[in-house]
Structures are given as structure tokens and as C-alpha cells.
Amino acid sequence: MAKKWGQYVRKWMTQKMDLPQDVMMDLPRITMIGQVHIYIENHRGLLAFSDGEVRLMIKHGQLLVKGKAFVIKTILPEEILLEGKIDQVIYIND
Amino acid sequence: MKNQWIHIFSGTVKVKLTGKGIERFLNQLTKNGVSIWNVRKHGSEAVTFYVNLQDVKKLRIPARDSNCKIRFLERAGGPFFLSKLWTNSGFFIGACLFLGLIMLLSNMVWGIEIRGANPATEHHIRKELDKMGISVGKMQFSIDNVESVQRELTDKIGALTWIGVELKGTTYHFQVVEKSEPKKAEVIGPRHLIAKRKAAIVKIFVEKGEPVVKVNDYVLPGQLLVSGLYGNEDDMKTVAASGEILGETWYSTKVELPLKSTFQVFNGSEKRKYSLKIAGRTLPVWGFGDPDFKEYETEVNDHPIKFFKWELPLMVEKKTLREREEVTRIYSREEAVESAKELARKDIKNHLPENAIIKGEKILHQSIENDKVKLTTHFTIIEDIAVGQPISQGD
Prior knowledge:
A: Immunoglobulin-like; elongated; B: alpha+beta; Ubiquitin-like (UB roll); 4-stranded antiparallel beta sheet; 8 helices; 47% strand
């Protein structure tokens, strides 16, 4: 109950005060450069990594990136830069 | 995100990870603050990535907890590059030695060529050069510059009129002109011989022509001595008169010599400084500080360093500081007169041809005034007084 209420306050604040949502609400911020690069901030860890698929933990659920010839250029606790040919970015909500 | 090329300096390692739970392992690493990059999957249970050399230790503990195996594949960057350089340093040292050797050999004397000298003079020159330290295999730094070599050779070898010294690359070229070169026979037209100055004839030796004067005759300058015309009046023939007419001539010279004179000499003590000149800047190598003496003269010798035939912008500069001393010479009266006479003799010899003889000398006037010896000497000289005077064909 308290958690939900907190979230409500945050949502209201971002709307009313015009703050960036990724900061306030712990959402992933995804930057893509064409199909070549994808840069994801605010992830919660790597779940699966292979040539054609990367699965990342995010705040609510998972993020699935599909494509070809993936290479993780950099990985930091909350950031990841992926290179390859990206076909799909899918949100999986629990 | 950090700049990745920075890692090149600290060194990087390529790691191969095999086993299950690779993703968990990678998460663990990033949480521990290990920066990893270029993660690539190979098949289903193998992954390769790069880590910093100093982070390699941090792989151990997570690896123990997981089911993965770690292998290190490649090592690159700073420390590994250095150790590689060390193992390959032989090549580098070799290259340096090679360049050094070439430089050394480029600055040696490799040949001495003497042209225009007969074998005897050439031998003499070679011996003299050996004494001066110019021989095949000597370093060019140890040799004086070309001008002083030239001066020294002309001074030491009497048979030389002139010697041209040239340093071409590693070879010294000597171009010799000898004094005893055969003269070209001059073609002389018909001429008289006339007196060049007033004289009393001492000896007449005529090769061609008709002598007009006799021994003990007194002649004036321009007077006819030997006629180039002979035969009777109807049938005159002309000839180039030649011969030697020795006459007694008279000269007087005035010499002044101070009793006290000061001049500057080098007393032999010197200091040498060596420095390397790189593109106009001077880097002292040997010989520091000021010399112990105050009065000195500086001689600078630059030796450019050569590489093959090219001169590098490098120079070895040799500075010689020679101590100078002032010497005062004081003559007594007798000494002064004696050296004034000697001076007069030298003076007169400079004016005379080589084969002239000083027959007698007489001091006309001698005085000592203001610490100066004044000497007027009268010389009696026997010399050839004949000079040619062409006969113009129109007469």
C-alpha cells in the first residue's frame, strides 16, 4: 500500500514539475543509434547473453533485445552498450 | 563511460570464460567495479572479454564461487609491450650499433689522393701527412681543418709551390703544383739587352748578340748593353740578344729598430673544450668552466658529423683557449745595432733576385734617438742587370 502510494506521488511530481521520468521513476533509458548501437541505462543486471539475444533485468520485468552478432562493448552496474544488428527491443512485463 | 584507449597504457588481458552461469559471473564483476568490454559469445557456454591488467586479481574470487573456468588468451598494452620490447631489444641495439658504425665509418679518412706530384714529392707529402696524423683509418675529428693542413704542408715541403687540399666525403684530395716544373721555352722576338739600373759592369757573358759595353764600364739605366743587330751596314740581321751581364749596383736602406718593444706570444698553456652542436644549440661535453688564465685567444674548430655523404645537423665543436702573454724585449745598444744590420740585410734580399750576391756593406749613418736605432746601410750588390728590349721591325 505504501509502495503504491509512493509511486503515485512520484508520478504526480514528474507530471507537475516536469522532471525527467527515467530519474524519478527508475525506468530504463534506451538510446539507439540506428540498428547498430543500443545503449541502456538503469538496468538491473544481465540475465542472458548470446549472439542473437540479450536479456536484461529492469525495474518492472525484463528487456529483451533481439538481433545478430551482438557484442557487449561496455558493461557497468547500471549501463550497457551493445553493438550488433538490432532487430527488436521487447518489454516483457511480469 | 571511460575512454578505452587509456587502458592501452596500463595493459589489458583477454579472458575466456567457459561454463554455466556466465551472465551471473559478469553481473558479479560489474558490481565489484571491474570494467569489462568487448564481450563476445562463442557458442553456448563460452564468452570472451577484455579486462584491465590491474583488475585481473578481482576475477579470482567470483570465479571460485561460480562454475566457470577462466583462461587468459591475450596480453596487450603497456607492461606487455615493454617486456616484448625487452626481448626484442637485440634488434633495436643492433640497429643502433649499425647506425653508429655507419656514422663512425662516414667520419673516417678512407683515402688520400695526391695528384700532380712526382713520386719523390708524393712520398715526401705522404710522410709529412703521416706525421700530421692524416692517414687512412684516422677519424676526421682529430684532423685540423683543410686550410691549416694546406698551410702546414706548404710550409714544411719546400718543393711545393702550391697545394690544394680538399676533403671530399671520406677522401682527401691533394692537388700539387711543384716548383721544378719544366718551363715552356719562351719564344723571344728580336731584342736588345739594356741595363735596368746604373751599374759598373763586372762580367759579360753573351750568348747571342753583339756586346756594346766592356768590363768596368759605367752604365746608366736604359743604356744598350748587347745589341740584337749584327752584320755590316748593308745587310743587317736581327737576333734575340741573350746573355748575362753582371754589374755592381748600389743600394742604400734605412732601418729603424726600437730598443724596447713589446709583443704578444702564446706561452703554451691551453685549455680545450669540446661540445656538441645540435641544430645551432651547443651542448658542452668536455671541458667546463673558465680557464685559469685571463688573457687568452680562442680558436674554434667545427667538425660536422657525416652520415654517408650527407652532413647531419650535428657538429663537434673544439674550442682551444690559448694563454697569451705580453713579452717585452729590451736590446742593449750593441745588440740593437747588430739586429738592425741583420734586418737591413733581410730587407735588401727581399728586393733582389735570388742569384744576386751581396758583395759588401757599409754603414753610412748610425744614431740612437728616442730609444730607437736608426741605421742607413749602403750595399754593394752584384746582379744581372740585363733586361730585354724588343727591336721594332719598322726601324
